[in-house]
Structures
1.
Amino acid sequence: MKKILYFIIWSFCIVLLSFAYEDYLYSQFKLDSSQGMVEDKGVGKTTKNIYGNFTEEPEYWIQLNGEKIIVTKAIYEEVQQHRQIKIMNTKHGTVIE
């Protein structure tokens, strides 16, 4: 009886850990992609607060299918208006095709 109880407890632990790990992987490597024509692009200013130190930094964005997407300076300079692109965002960065 004791061995059966240990087996059941270990099985539940393994199942719970696998669900937690799957959720962790989804949050780390979730891929948001958008495809379409670059309608507009621009530079704005954003204010960042790091431990009470306020700094103003440029924020580069492009507009795809009416959706404003924040991108890095390198991607902003590479993308041309009225051109078909596919952009993929992850937690770790942005990729364009």
2.
Amino acid sequence: MLGVSRPFASKVSKEPQRKAVADRLIGQTATVIEDFEGHEGLVKFDGEIWCAKSYDRIKKGDEVTIKAIDGVKLIVEKKEDNVR
């Protein structure tokens, strides 16, 4: 019964569907808040600080694009306009 009533209730209530966290983050831009050491560092996205991994050479202040999420770490790439 629950399998039938839940989809019906969400249609009736007209609540907007929420995207999963990964869907909201992938493709977005984050700012690096410390130089990456050993392919890992910290980035800030939407007011929150995240651990991140990348194989690019990334420095504090660079902007990166979020490509994926691996557990609680973001996988990022340096934005093209930052390439030094």
